[in-house]
Specification:
Layout lengths: L1 H35 L3 H5 L13 H8 L2 H32 L6 H13 L4 H10 L7 H4 L6 H12 L3 H9 L4 H12 L1 H16 L3 H6 L8 H16 L4 E3 L2 E3 L1 H30 L8
Antiparallel strand pairs: 1-2
Helix pairs in contact: 1-14, 3-14, 4-8, 4-11, 4-13, 5-8, 11-14, 13-14
GO cellular component, one term: plasma membrane
Family: Belongs to the binding-protein-dependent transport system permease family.
Keywords: Cell membrane, Membrane, Transmembrane, Transmembrane helix, Transport
Length: about 290
């Protein structure tokens, strides 16, 4: 009886603590959401917003009425979709090849990839490489440098190492080649790993910022995060952090900032539920072999 009571007490305290952490984590995002749907007049009155006051979508309408913001969303969406697909293809194909012991030069390739994880070239060599490849002001400069990493390749390779070789041997007996085995047998078994890496790639490409600052000088090719930064700078510069007048109406730059943050955050949050059933298994990639 004593053990049951102690177990129940622990579960109660643990649940209460986790709920408190969840509230503290989600409240800032909820507050940003409330401000983004609150009219400027109500927001400038001050006070803590627990619910939107004088509900409005004028801040979202303003952002989508500007030519820069929708264009930046299209750029970020292209990076997230195409970059994720290319990253998964490169990582999965290379990791599968390296997991096959019969690959010529396998050990040398593994050492070279391991070298890249231990010694990073740094910002200046990366910039010089991108410039010499003629990728400055090109969308490819935001895709190719992030297309994969040694860490991802090693994790994916560990996952492929856990697949029984008997499956491939049976496929070879049936007349399948390496490409057919990878496409028809190995990839379907890799859905948890692909879902996990896909989410990581999508988040990285959607949130690309520093590379865009370095490599993209043309504002028409800026991704969403760079445009969001520019909106924050322009709002603070034009209004000094306070209210400003537009067409005879009082406008709160802070409300527009919040709306921009929500637009930049929600798409990735909506992707996660579709990958959730694979994510729990995928995070264990490379941790257990057997």
């Amino acid at each position: 009886m004593g053990k049951r009571l102690s177990g129940s007490t622990f579960d109660l305290i643990n649940t209460a603590l986790l709920l408190l952490i969840a509230v503290l984590t989600l409240f800032p995002l909820y507050y940003v959401l409330c401000v983004s749907f609150t009219s400027s007049e109500q927001y400038l009155k001050g006070g803590l917003l627990l619910f939107p006051r004088d509900f409005t979508v004028e801040h979202y309408q303003y952002l989508f009425s500007t030519p820069m913001f929708p264009r930046a969303i299209r750029v970020s969406a292209f990076l997230a979709v195409f970059g994720t697909a290319l990253g998964l293809a490169v990582t999965a194909a290379l990791a599968y090849a390296l997991s096959r012991k019969r690959l010529l030069g396998r050990k040398t390739l593994l050492i070279l990839i391991l070298f890249t994880t231990l010694f990073q070239p740094g910002m200046i060599p990366n910039y010089l490489l991108v410039r010499e490849l003629g990728l400055i002001n090109s969308t490819w400069s935001l895709i190719l440098p992030m297309v994969s990493s040694g860490w991802n390749i090693f994790l994916m390779k560990s996952f492929y190492d856990s697949i029984p070789e008997s499956l491939e041997e049976a496929a070879v007996i049936d007349g399948s080649n390496d490409l057919h085995i990878w496409w028809r047998i190995v990839l379907p078994l890799s859905l948890p790993a692909l879902a996990t890496f896909g989410l990581f790639f999508a988040v990285a490409y959607w949130n690309v910022f520093f590379n865009a600052i370095l490599y993209i000088n043309d504002f028409t090719k800026w991704p969403l995060q760079v445009v969001l930064r520019q909106i924050l700078i322009d709002s603070n510069t034009s209004a000094g952090g306070g209210a400003m007048q537009e067409a005879g109406q009082v406008v709160s730059p802070q409300s527009r900032k919040m709306a921009a943050v929500i637009i930049a955050t929600v798409p990735i949050m909506l992707v996660y539920p579709f990958l959730q059933r694979h994510f729990a298994k995928g995070v264990m990639v490379g941790s257990v072999k057997g």
